[in-house]
Amino acid sequence: MISHLGPQRSESNRTPVGTLWIVSADQITQFKADPSMKFLGGWDPLTQDERNQFFIDQSLLQDQLIAAGRVDLAEALTNGSGGVDTEAKTLDGVDPTLVDRVEALRRKGDPVAVFLGPARTS
After folding, report:
1. Is the pLDDT score of 86 beyond 70?
2. Rounded to whole angstroms, what are the CA distances from 68 to 1, 8, 24, 74, 112?
3. Which secondary-structure segment (H or E) carries 38?
4. CA dihedral 18, 23, 28, 30 (to 10 degrees)
5. Single pTM value for the model
6. What per-residue string of b and e applies to 41-77 under the rule 16 or more CB within 10 Å gives b?
7. Beta carbons of 60 and 104 less than 8 angstroms apart
8. Where are the domains of the chain?
9. Is residue 22 within 8 Å of 114, Cβ to Cβ?
10. What does the radius of gyration of the chain's CA atoms come to, in whole angstroms?
């Protein structure tokens, strides 16, 4: 296949040596754990201290949500499906201050990272 940018940019004329992956949020952890992926760089809207505190608070909040019978909201913390900020504060056993803290950091945005992986064969 010839690229619209010219034959020098066509994969079919070259043997690929790798695949660039741009990932965000919780996918970054999965890619970092994959030994075939090389982390090239990334951006995080949180400082390292904020990110560390976020992981601690997120884990505590997930435990509280599961104990309150809201596994869906616990999963929403990592998959972004929503509802935590509006539904979690009134649940028995869930600390509303913790919800506010986690949601304030989530609203700052998701981290993004670039990885180099093995060449794709198709």
Report:
1. yes
2. 55, 58, 29, 10, 32
3. strand 38-43
4. -60
5. 0.73
6. eeebebeeeeeeebeebbeebbebbeebebeebbebb
7. no
8. 7-44+111-117, 48-106
9. yes
10. 20
